[in-house]
UniProtKB/TrEMBL annotation, chains A, B, C, D:
Keywords: DNA-binding, Transcription, Transcription regulation
DNA-binding region range list: 45-64
Superkingdom of origin: Bacteria
Protein name: Putative HTH-type transcriptional regulator
DNA sequence: TTCTAATCGAGACGGTACGTCACGTCTTTGC
DNA sequence: GCAAAGACGTGACGTACCGTCTCGATTAGAA
């Protein structure tokens, strides 16, 4: 699980006094996701999250520095569940599997509304960018790398030094294209479309 | 042309009364971009934009319903400047040209900070999504179609019914991948990377 | 009738050009009273008055310097109608008559809400105070003086130099008491109450 | 005691949380009076009061619903200081004493500018009228009743059932007349004028 | 009759204050 | 020392009116 307590507060040195409630953490992150679903990123407020979680605002600020970091952790719990689909038997089938899994996550309303907002905030906040990368993005990239390894093992494509620039390109192609389809073009990512994309990517990898 | 007056107010039928100042429009959009560069999306306030533009806040709200729509129009003026590069002699060269031009736009600080935020807002606001599509996105789609037509004319790829699903896919791939590289992965879009992407796309189109 | 065009604009020297519409004056003052009835002083806006009168805001400002002066003139038209009641045959009866007439005016909603507001504004605006005095207050004072003259003529009270301090006192007593009853105590000014007040004032005048 | 916290918020039942600052109450009411003196009623703004008091606008709105109620409480603190003068030895002398004390209050600039405005607002707001009555007006009524009791004790006037309609009338006469003299006629309330009023009222009470 | 100049409606304009909201901090009482 | 509660200073929000201005279109009297 991604660390849900703010790493800025050292666990060391706090020995006496009432310990922090672990239940509060779970309640806060769940309340954050619920509020995202109902309100979307820009209407979400920390006061609202606190009262949904049955927690005082102070408790919330004691654990996270702000809205950005809280939402990163709330989404990270969802991405923790990402796993590579079972081997589809071919490069194309594996790509289709990854694309559909990624799209399913992207189409959850809490993710739709929050993920791009976090990346936007990251444009002016390097620490946030790192937090996003380690908690969310890299978890997806792993799928791409693993799928590629399967294809090499099946001898569909030649082996390549990893992690190398080509793996990054493939990741940008798949993730970027799905995001663009789902959030900008706002059209469904179904099996037909995923197959077309997989064909294009596989051709590129082979050719 | 970017739609800088709020389309909700029909231009037809308003004959009397003091006309809106065209200079104010220009000043407001320029001030918006300047504020984006300095402050980024989340710290940008409409009051600040108004005072930068030497304009009253009410003037601003008379023309745009809010921050989202204002920033769409401010960015749209930048995208209006996009043009297809001269014929590069091959499909790959043309793709590289488009990608580099597009990336140059995406790396301007006002775009970096605002574009993802707009897409995030669009997740819960269909009207905004349409506005983004018509003012910004579709302007680039034209480039893809034209580049494809050149390739067909050069007999590099077979002709296809247009605009069809494949053109849309190519567009999502190129635009999405470049945006993801520039704004999510936050790594440079240089000629090497652009060539790799072009190779992948061209192979997909041919294969 | 109280002058309804702003005296600050000299009538001299304006010979050519389109003359001001007299109908507009009437419509504006009537609209002002109607708005006062509906909204009361503090919610009355000049823009609303203008649109009720079917007139542009400019027309309104061309004739009155502001809300205060406009309302003075609007109320003045009501006070123009004030007349002494027929001779009641005794000092008490005449006082009762004046009190009831004054109270009837004070209880009109447009007057209730606006008269005290104007006096409050007058506390910091000497020109307004004069305008109120000449257009409204003096019209009431005349009734008191005339009633007193009748009583002297009937030999109910001794003659006195006029206008003298006693007349002013009587005026303040009657007007002030009625206003206090109607607007502060917010209780009805009926014939019973008026008779009690008249008895007190008459006793004071005689003794 | 003037009710300086909004009575709509019950003091009962609030045990936890940071308590409201009592110093803020005092600072706000003092700042309100200072702003009234400088600016008068109509130019007084709550933002200005807040910054004079060194307090946030929200603190002000947390305690009072608006300008009207705030000013009532600010004036009420002044009227709290009213006390019956020492026994003057006669009904007339006592009336003169009360009238002069009351007039001295009315001639303070903060009261001059605000009291009539409040009464005007009260014309369309029954709750405000009640607040004015209980916080300001009734405090003076006490003086009238007490002065009357003294006169009865001195056997100057016959005893009467109290509080009865006559006491209310006397109160309306004295308070209304002094207010009208001071704020509408805008002429001084000096000993001469007060004596004349006292004579009239005393004659009315005796006759 | 034509000219001319002030009027008219409409509505945009730069301002100012409004009353509300969310922020992130603080100060209480109670565990 | 943590927790809930809620007041606090701050600053932006979006709205409402203010009083002024710029339009094109009348409208009467003067030339």
């Amino acid at each position: 699980m991604s660390q849900s307590t703010d790493p800025g507060v050292p666990v060391e040195g706090r020995r006496t006094g009432r310990p922090r409630s672990a239940a509060a953490d779970r309640a806060i992150l769940a309340a954050t996701r619920a509020a995202l679903v109902e309100l979307g990123w820009s209407r979400l407020t920390l006061g609202d999250v606190a009262s949904r979680a049955g927690v005082a605002k102070t408790t919330l600020y004691r654990r996270w520095p702000g809205k950005n970091e809280l939402v990163v952790d709330a989404l990270a719990e969802l991405f923790d569940g990402l796993a590579l689909p079972p081997d589809g038997g071919s490069l194309e089938a594996d790509i289709v599997g990854v694309v559909l899994r990624f799209a399913a996550l992207l189409e959850r309303p809490e993710v739709r509304s929050a993920l791009m907002a976090l990346i936007a905030e990251g444009a002016y906040d390097a620490a946030l960018r790192d937090r996003i990368r380690s908690a969310i993005v890299n978890r997806q990239k792993r799928l791409v790398l693993e799928g590629r390894a399967r294809a090499v093992h099946r001898r569909e494509i030649p082996p390549a030094p990893e992690p190398g620039p080509q793996a990054d390109l493939i990741f940008d192609v798949i993730a970027g294209t799905v995001v663009h389809r789902a959030l900008v073009s706002a059209e469904p990512v179904d099996e037909t479309w995923a197959s077309a994309l997989a064909a294009l990517v596989a051709a590129g990898l082979r050719g």
